[in-house]
DNA sequence: TATCTTTTTGCACACACTGCAAGTTTTGAC
DNA sequence: GTCAAAACTTGCAGTGTGTGCAAAAAGATA
């Protein structure tokens, strides 16, 4: 029973995608409703209509189900930075790539807001987010060193530029949140890049 | 049987301190020898000569026993920044406080090296370290806003200065490590602060 | 010595997570 | 439509982390 047409391209892929999304949203909802600690993996599975064992086929940990951060984003941005026009200086390349990325995230502001609200209230999740940010920063640092072709032991400035760029991103996010998610995040980011000397 | 004299001031406090240290060193040693995952909390307890249950009286998690990072360092540095002479600009205060802190860490280079080696090889621990760094950054951001008396929603520059300072610290550490922990970390940090515009 | 406090320990338990093997669904070829 | 291969789901059994509780051991106090 495939009933193609009511459901669009009903292949295995899309079913998996929907199951994953059901699990993720169930995880976030339950965590918001009753707290992260008080929510068990079994409950999330039940809410999404799958067996407990299946939950762990989709997410390695309970935290992953809530944060749901893309594990290969660092690699993707690394590539994006490396593939930028070679005449650009590190700061320019980083700025372009990170601006694109933030524009993408602006597409789903609710998700971002729920995530950061949850993270603010539960240390496990904020640690998790910090870890994801750190892996991203490391990937960007490697990317700019690759572009520059210099030795990290001698050249401090190149790696530093990537860390300054990430600092600007964090500052922009923080300000955005402090301002009640009002106004354009991309604009704030632009200001932050300028203030951080990323140009 | 207190035998004061063979052991120094043998009170309850010092016994606890030594037990904690035994657990920490046993945890680090075992994790280095056979890997983090392959080391169980029970084994750490046994190696330190205490019961498994006691292990968790000293450390909330296995990760804590290895990282052993001081949970109230953020609060301490927050205070240090706030208490700096009021004529100093944020960047100056941050630079002074972080320089002091790094000088302290330079006192035990072996510990730092083992930690970062372990963290580099096991994602759980690097996530943990990133989380600790993030909590520190957040504390410093709050501290400089407190000094400035401004609203984070309007004033981006103040919070950004704290994040730039932390970026400089990370860059200096990274370079130091890339250079085989050779030379003065404090010197590298000074260069990094200058390059990041923290002054 | 007697007593009060702190620490250690054992026990039972909830929950996260994994390997494995058996079931079910989906797919693609005929 | 039938059938076999591939992919996905599930149950089961087990390891390991981490917690509450109450009894035992150790240390401090007088």
From TrEMBL, chains A, B:
<dbReference type="InterPro" id="IPR023772">
    <property type="entry name" value="DNA-bd_HTH_TetR-type_CS"/>
</dbReference>
<dbReference type="InterPro" id="IPR001647">
    <property type="entry name" value="HTH_TetR"/>
</dbReference>
<dbReference type="InterPro" id="IPR050109">
    <property type="entry name" value="HTH-type_TetR-like_transc_reg"/>
</dbReference>
<dbReference type="Pfam" id="PF17754">
    <property type="entry name" value="TetR_C_14"/>
</dbReference>
<feature type="domain" description="HTH tetR-type">
    <location>
        <begin position="17"/>
        <end position="77"/>
    </location>
</feature>
<feature type="DNA-binding region" description="H-T-H motif">
    <location>
        <begin position="40"/>
        <end position="59"/>
    </location>
</feature>
<keyword id="KW-0804">Transcription</keyword>
<dbReference type="InterPro" id="IPR009057">
    <property type="entry name" value="Homeodomain-like_sf"/>
</dbReference>
<keyword id="KW-0238">DNA-binding</keyword>
<protein>
    <submittedName>
        <fullName>TetR family transcriptional regulator</fullName>
    </submittedName>
</protein>
<dbReference type="GO" id="GO:0000976">
    <property type="term" value="F:transcription cis-regulatory region binding"/>
</dbReference>
<dbReference type="Pfam" id="PF00440">
    <property type="entry name" value="TetR_N"/>
</dbReference>
<keyword id="KW-0805">Transcription regulation</keyword>
<dbReference type="InterPro" id="IPR041347">
    <property type="entry name" value="MftR_C"/>
</dbReference>
<dbReference type="GO" id="GO:0003700">
    <property type="term" value="F:DNA-binding transcription factor activity"/>
</dbReference>
